Amino acid sequence: MPEISDEMALSLSAQGDKQAFGSLYERYVSRIYSYIYYRTGNQHDAEDLTARVFYRAMHHINNYQQRGLPFSAWLYRIAHNLVANWHRDNSRRPEVSLDECLWLHQPGEHPEGMLLQTEENENLMKVLHKLPPDRQQLLILKFVEHLSNAEIGQIMGRTEGAVKSLYHRTLLALRDEMEQPKPAKNLSS
Amino acid sequence: MLDWIRLPWGNSDIDELDGLESSLEAVFRPVEPSPEFVHDLRRRLTNFPIPVIPDPDSKIPLYIALAIASLLSGVAIVGFIIWIILLLVGRLQPHEKRVITSPPLAS
């Protein structure tokens, strides 16, 4: 299918053109998957929820109205809601499992350095998952998707100024949490 | 990145937050889904009939139940009012029929 704009693809999709929806899917599946992956922490749930996002988008494509909100923003909102439901349904889990492949290292790194970096990254991710959902969303959209505050505001339904303020408060909260003394690890003899 | 923020406690905290941002940059790297997953999902989305996904959060069944309950309640209330009216009318009718006729005057 030749490259068409999002607006054209949406219009065709609303008329039942599944191939047009397929082109939209291919444009955004990586971004949505990446977002969900960092919110859930594992590949299996990320794939499951990503599929549900696009099924839901396909079912409700006629409800999407182009009111200045990009299609990607609509997808992120669906993803955010589904992830929130997932967390609620999995609230009994004490921690979110973190796939080891999250820690991508450059070849040639010193093994000890890699171990320290991995541990730091793991601690940071654990702290991140303790944040409220909106703050997690903000950080993922900023650092994974490299979206601007204005674009993030469109997704989160906030003003650009509110996003800036939230971002600053989030960093402060993260810093304070990282500075908390960690409980000593139980070392078996 | 944080130069626009003027913090009253000096630049050390800005440096600290800058360091935190660097850590976040290192942690958050885009993660690509597996090609098999992407291809398989596209095939399911575009080739098969649109499946019905049960939405456990949907409130539509609740709204339908409320609408039916409201309708039945309305019908019951109207029926009750009509019954009361008929009852009152039934009690009045004997009074209307009991017309006291004066005895004929003796000539």
Please supply descriptive tags for the structure shown above.
heterodimer; A: 189 residues; mainly alpha; Arc Repressor Mutant, subunit A; 2 domains; B: 107 residues; 3 helices; elongated; disordered N terminus
Strand content of chain B: under 5%
CATH superfamily of the largest domain in chain A: RNA polymerase sigma factor, region 2, helix turn helix motif
The pair of chains with the biggest contact is: A-B, 43 and 30 residues
- What's the total number of strands of chain B? 0
Low-confidence stretches of chain B: 1-10
Shape type of chain B: elongated
- Based on helices, strands and strand pairing, what is the structural class of chain B? mainly alpha
Rg of chain B (C-alpha, Å): 40 Å
Classify the beta-strand content of chain A into a percent band.
under 5%
Helical percent range of chain B?
A: 55-70%
Low-confidence stretches of chain A: 103-109
Rounded to the nearest angstrom, the radius of gyration of chain A is: 19 Å
Word description of this protein:
The complex is a heterodimer of chains A (189) and B (107). Chain A has 189 residues and is mainly α. Chain A folds into two domains: 1-94, RNA polymerase sigma factor, region 2, helix turn helix motif (Rna Polymerase Sigma Factor, Chain: A, Orthogonal Bundle); 107-181, Arc Repressor Mutant, subunit A. Chain A has helices spanning 6-14, 18-40, 43-59, 71-89, 111-128, 133-143, 149-156, 160-178. In chain A, helix 1 packs across helix 2, helix 4 crosses helix 7 (149-156) and helix 7 packs across helix 8. The longest helix of chain A is centred in the first third of the chain and has 23 residues, at 18-40. Chain A is globular and about 55 Å long. The N and C termini of chain A lie far apart (63 Å). Chain B is mainly α. The longest helix of chain B has 38 residues, at 60-97. The N and C termini of chain B lie far apart (122 Å). The model of chain B is unreliable at 1-10 (pLDDT under 50). The interface between A and B is large, with 43 and 30 residues.
